[in-house]
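SAMPLE LOG
Freezer: B-3
Tube label: C17
Construct: single chain, 215 aa
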Amino acid sequence: MNVILLGAPGAGKGTISKHLVDKYSMVQISTGDILRNEVKNQTELGIKAKSFMDSGDLVPDEVILGIIENRIKESDCKRGFIMDGFPRTIAQAEGFSDMVGRNNLVIDAILELEADDDLLIKRLTSRRTCSNTNCQAIYNVLYQPPAKEGICDKCGSELIQRSDETEEAITYRLKTYYEKTQPLIDYYNGGSNYHKIKADLPLDEIKASVDSIIK
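STRUCTURE (predicted):
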């Protein structure tokens, strides 16, 4: 089972990805994670990507797609993978579709998590992250608070609000998301494997909806 997971910041992609990984032994593929790994390991594509990153430019689609293709060919992806937040543009979607066909794979489900902006802003502004770079545990003061206010349960370090999770920053992130990603939603919408899931429901109901689609 191979899945593309779409949704605005705060829609719950990370939570649903973890659910799919835990319940169905699927592999979560985050472009940011694999990009950093390729750079760290100094692979040919990683070196090429770093040259763009160091100059402050966006990494071109062909480099991103090449890195993803290397990842989906690894043995653990044979049991199924989740594309978390990728593709982001129609050009990436078209390139990914060609890649999937080239490797004799099928995308079984495209899941879009949908929620109103007010809820997304509320979720993200209440997030707190452990300041210890070796921990980076994430909490939510409304839904998953630490045992002691402002202190990480795991390592005892101070919890902070990231600069990109203030209301102003999140409003801008959502505006950018809709401008760049709405055409992608329109691109996928209408296909037999496309499913829209209300992400403002209780978590158990969201998971049940996902499970129903997967089964």
